[in-house]
Design goal:
Low-confidence stretches: 1-6
Bound molecules: NADP nicotinamide-adenine-dinucleotide phosphate
Largest sheet: 5 strands, parallel
Distance between the termini: 38 Å
């Protein structure tokens, strides 16, 4: 169905349209009106939305102007419906540019316009779709075999693109189902904390029930994708990749262990799509094994235990504990949360809200409205935030903030904590972080967490843990908290990228031994000495504020497909990243990360390795990642050997 032939609008009554418009995001609606009417005065007049950090979602458009735009939209939609919903042409590039500037409330460089226009996908439904493989003989593509490790978000998009290219592939996943992190994390309260309209594949928008949907909804989405794109036949579940060894013949031998035991498969290339956060980390607290109650990690939720009426100790206040505490607290006898570092919390009033019918209707049936709304979300929750988390070298209050904009953000977030728990000075003092905002991952909340902290049966303990004893937890001040259950919300072995797989590259060098505590890659995707091995969500590709990790995966897969195309067109067996290129890139990455809030020396987080180097995060903009991952530069690689069949 084209944008202009929406059955929903054709059948809608005036009253239905009017009711739906009450839910409109007016800046997106105004741009949709430009499509509908061609009236550019709408974006050249007095109405000027501004993007505000956690501010008015209507961009400061006054209630009167909102009402006027809704009335105009009602007329335009009625006229469009009565004309039979004709197709609408995409506007000219200059008009698009004006519309982008209008909705963002800022002028952007031409580079950005090119990138954002592509992301917006008004004219091209799938800008990341593979192309250029048709010229390669079908037999050569079929003989080329790619092993993808992991059937989560990144693994599935790899499979989709490989299938589109006609290359043979197999996914191995240790789990019993697809979905990766959404398959594994099943703790109560688990939901996505990036807006769902951007946390979805560009080519597979979804009618999300909530702006931040729950784990089961996310899992259903990825399950549906696996079925709709007919991927399942090539996905081996319950099958773990144990090791991979690169041979002199330019082929990888991949050892897997599945229900039928161990076997070895041959591949021309390997893509690891295993995520950074799937190996739960239990803290090194003395006495941990002495505990006599129930104990488990949030990432390995043991649903068989009834937590009702239990005295629960929760260790950690990261994203996972933060989501689960408010859910388990009402039924528990007590919840004692052991906090080492408080999180910064970004207020999002709609965090738990279901999307009302009217909003669904607008998203699904008003031509181009959904695209602009997705784009607005994409911008305001990502690139638009970067300026507030970048260091200003002239700023000297570096412990609390790293720039005037970061300090302003700090004020804003602190005011929110004050509004939530300001009536309890002791709790307030525990909840305001002493590091710059975005030093660690900012959490999203509509007050749920803070309301939980104020419950009579919940206590936030900041006294450090001394030891775990058979009956509970003892703190350094000598206090003993009796517990029936200990929940570890203590995170993952993030910087042990690819753990526990063993990957032997040229000369038998094992990748994780080679990395030690310092994983590095060129563009986050390739490492010298490991030809035809590609990482999705590899070193320095995690994001703190800028966008959805799905965007990064789609960019990475586009690049990886470009590499495979290069091998196939050149008839080469191997592409090996040049060490000088890799090293120069990593220098830039380090420089970049030191300029960001998460590189602050007074912050410890899973973003950094034991030496304080930021091993996980991407320091740049989305535009820069998009640009650098367009296609491989053959000069960055040494190509060698003659291509052989791996399938
Ligand atoms: P995390 O952010 O690493 O949090 C771990 C928590 O445990 C921190 O509060 C940490 O304190 C604490 N901790 C660790 N060891 C401790 C010890 N020995 N004693 C006391 N406290 C200890 O882990 P997570 O909450 O599982 O989240 C990890 C990442 O997963 C997130 O950053 C996010 O990227 C992702 N995630 C996303 C979602 C979502 O989208 N909805 C949900 C969950 C997780 P310190 O801060 O002092 O180290």
């Amino acid at each position: 169905m084209t944008e202009g032939s929406s059955g929903g609008l054709a059948a809608a009554t005036d009253a239905e349209i009017e009711a739906a418009l009450e839910h409109a995001h007016v800046p997106s609606l105004i741009n949709a009106l430009v499509h509908l009417t061609g009236d550019l005065s709408l974006i050249r007049g007095d109405i000027r939305p501004v993007s505000q950090l956690f501010g008015d979602p209507q961009g400061g458009v006054s209630p009167e102007d909102q009402a006027a735009m809704r009335a105009l939209a009602l007329q335009a939609l009625k006229a469009h419906r009565d004309a039979g919903c004709p197709d609408l042409a995409a506007p000219a590039t200059e008009v698009m540019q004006e519309m982008l500037h209008f909705i963002i409330g800022a002028e952007l460089s031409p580079d950005y316009v090119e990138f954002l226009t592509s992301e917006l996908k008004l004219v091209n439904e799938d800008p990341y779709r593979v192309d250029g493989f048709e010229g390669i003989p079908e037999a050569a593509r079929k003989d080329f075999h790619v092993v993808v490790v992991g059937a989560g978000m990144s693994g599935l998009v790899n499979a989709i693109r490989l299938k589109q290219a006609g290359i043979s592939w197999t996914i191995f996943d240790k789990n019993a189902g697809v979905g990766g992190t959404w398959f594994e994390n099943r703790y109560p309260g688990c939901r996505v904390d990036s807006p769902n309209h951007t946390y979805s594949y560009s080519f597979a928008p979804n009618d999300w029930p909530q702006h931040f949907s729950q784990q089961s909804v996310l899992l259903d989405y990825f399950d549906r994708i696996a079925s709709e794109y007919e991927l399942r036949d090539n996905i081996c579940l319950d099958t773990e990749v144990i090791s991979a060894r690169y041979g002199d013949d330019g082929l990888w031998r991949v050892a897997v262990r599945g229900p039928e035991g161990e076997r070895t498969v041959t591949a021309n290339a390997i893509v690891t799509a295993v995520g950074q956060l799937n190996r739960p980390k239990l803290p090194d607290i003395p006495g941990r094994d002495d505990f006599e109650g129930i104990a488990f990690h949030t990432g390995q939720w043991e649903a068989e235990h009834d937590l009702k009426g239990k005295r629960i100790a929760v260790i950690g206040t990261g994203a996972s504990a933060f989501q689960t505490v408010p859910e388990i607290a009402p039924g528990a006898e007590s919840v004692t949360i052991f906090q080492r570092t408080p999180p910064w919390v970004a207020p999002r009033a709609e965090y738990h809200d279901y999307i009302p019918d009217g909003k669904h209707w607008l998203l699904n049936h008003v031509p181009f409205y959904g695209k602009w709304f997705r784009f607005w979300m994409f911008w305001t929750t990502s690139e638009g935030l970067l300026a507030s988390v970048r260091r200003d070298p002239a700023w000297n209050q570096t412990d609390r903030s790293i720039s005037p904009a970061n300090d302003q953000l700090r004020e804003l977030l602190t005011a929110n904590v004050q509004a939530m728990v300001g009536d309890d000075p002791e709790l307030l003092a525990k909840c305001v972080p002493d590091y710059p905002p975005a030093g660690k991952r900012m959490l999203v909340d509509n007050g749920h967490w803070f309301r939980a902290l104020k419950r009579d049966n919940v206590e936030l303990v900041t006294d450090p843990i001394a030891r775990i004893v058979p009956g509970g937890i003892e703190t350094e001040s000598g206090r003993r908290v009796e517990a029936d259950v200990i929940l570890y919300g203590t995170g993952f072995y993030a910087s042990r990228i690819l753990f526990p797989m063993k990957i032997y590259g040229e000369g038998g060098v094992e990748l994780r031994e080679h990395w030690g505590a310092d994983p590095r890659a060129y563009l986050g995707m390739v490492a010298p000495g490991f030809p035809n091995l590609f990482f999705c969500y590899g070193p320095n590709t995690n994001i703190v504020v800028n966008g959805s990790i799905i965007f990064f995966s789609e960019c990475e897969v586009r690049y990886i497909m470009g590499c495979l195309k290069l091998l196939l067109t050149e008839g080469k067996a191997a592409m090996n990243c040049r060490t000088d290129v890799h090293d120069a890139y990593n220098e830039k990455i380090d420089e970049g990360n030191l300029a960001m809030a998460w590189g602050s020396p007074n912050v410890k987080s899973w973003y950094k390795n034991e030496h304080g180097r930021v091993t996980q995060n991407w320091p740049g903009t989305m535009l820069e990642f998009w640009q650098q991952s367009q296609a491989p530069n053959p000069d960055d690689f040494v190509l060698s050997g003659e291509l052989r069949a791996g399938a």
